[in-house]
Amino acid sequence: MKISSRLQIGLVAGILIAIGLGLTLYKKIELGFPLLPGQRQAVWTLESKVSFKPIGGPIEISLALPDPQAGWVVLDDHFASSGFNFSVQELQGDRRARWTRQSLERTTTLHYKLEVYRSDIYDLGGSAVPDIVLPELTQDRLAAMEGMVALLREQSSGSESFTALLLQQLVREQMDQDAAFLFGSREESKLAVVMDVLAFAGIPSQTVKGIFLEDGRRRQKMDTLIEIYDGDRWHLFDPGNAQPGLPENFFVWQRGAKSVLDVVGGESSQLEFAIVKNTLPIKTVLFMEQQVKERLLLDFSIYSLPVEQQGVFKGLLLIPVGALVVVLLRILVGIRTSGTFMPILIALAFIQTTLLTGLVIFLMVVGVGLWIRFYLTYLNLLLVARITAVVIVVILLMAALSIISYKLGFDQLLTVTFLPTIILAWTIERMSILWEEEGGHEVLIQGGGSLFAAILAYLLMSVDLVEHLTFNFPELMISLLGVVLLLGKYTGYRLVELYRFRDLGRPDE
Fold it and tell me: What residues are paired with 101 via a beta bridge?
């Protein structure tokens, strides 16, 4: 007996929905994954990547490992050392990872991953006070150094205010004459000049290396803070903005002048970090890391991917949610949109730009783009050339909007770069063709429907619960696929059609 397509769709959709819900319940009951985002501790996953190019001969890589400091708690860490002899050593109270190999022919990347979370204690604590080593200066630099130190001492009341005034020279548009000479005539970094000035002034100081934690960052470099000792306690400063104190999102990797990475037998070495913020409770993360080799499901979860890919999937897993909104609006409600994927991508852009700013940017770019597209119509260009011209114009508009907004102080409009350029170009092209064939009324209907769908998708995708479920329970996408298959067989009336034919349902008067 031949099974009808409707029954096949029903069976397939039911199986998919059951599989997705079953896997979700398994992770909730057996593995302890929380269904609600409120049951969580913010846990950061950091993955460091050490890349280098071998130059021949034996290879030895040494990486400083972080100790829990400034209120950060390390849950667990993992090393990737395929083909290398690996060990963790204690050297003068510091933990360092050591990779060795006799020879290597190609560029290689080594990985170190750890999970950390923030406790309520932010103080760095004590540290051995380093010896002050006076810098070696030429006669002209010595004179400039003496003048600058004398001026800062006159304006300050102690070591802390001295350092604050010194760092303000870095962020000031116009430096003092001595400061401009010291910071502008040296080949080394400005940070090295700051350390020399502190040493010349007799202030014990050292660097604090670490990472600013921002969700989804990839290829992030290590940053450096400065701390000084006033004879009683340590004071921390951010040389980037001259602000005192430890930033809340700064993870301390190492204190002191020791090197973080040493490479023997290689060149062009780099240390980069990928960061992602997880929403699992601490006990769940601990359980997951302890059982990762025993639990088959966890072995194939999002958390088993490299951190860089985890950050990418946090955004990708929201796309099916936006697609469901578009499917519901088009099939059940009957709202017409300019394409299927344009509202989803615009909704993703709104997540980066905020809703109001994204709407303003979108309307400005599309409005000016349509005006330019109408001019290109009179030139009778071929389709490919015309689309390419529109893409170039859209990029120029976005660049001009960014420059003008920056000059006027509207920093929010700088997020114009998050709008999908190709989608904007195709939207302008489709709307212009639609205007020529159907008129401006149809353009307003489809353009308004697209923005309405994008706004609803944005509102749903930006809910914490939705983001939590899609990332921690990607199995729900299987159930979502089943729901979409069921919607694909819907042949009933849409809401706009019920309103359109409302008079037919009334009894004759």
Answer: 59
pLDDT digits (tens, 9 = 90+) for 164-207: 888 887 777 667 777 777 777 554 577 888 888 888 888 888 88
What separation in angstroms does the CA of 55 have from each of 15, 103, 180, 262? 56, 9, 40, 15
Is residue 274 within 8 Å of 217, Cβ to Cβ? yes
Task: Give the Cα separation of 82 and 300 in Å (integer).
Answer: 20
In the chain, domain spans:
43-125+260-278, 139-255, 315-473
d(CA 276, CA 314): 9
Q: Which fold has domain 43-125+260-278?
A: Immunoglobulin-like (2.60.40)
Pairwise CA distance, residues 162 & 455, whole Å: 51
Dihedrals phi, psi of 394, to nearest 5 degrees: -60, -45
Distance CA 461, CA 465 (A): 9
Q: Is the dihedral of CA 473, 479, 483, 485 positive or negative?
A: positive
Q: Which residues of the chain have pLDDT under 70?
A: 1-2, 31-32, 37-41, 70, 119-126, 173-174, 185-188, 279-301, 303-308, 311, 406, 409-420, 422, 500-509
Residue 111: enclosing H or E segment and its boundaries? Answer: strand 108-118
Q: What is the per-residue pLDDT across 253-276, written as a single tens digit (0 to 9) for each?
A: 888 878 888 888 888 888 888 888
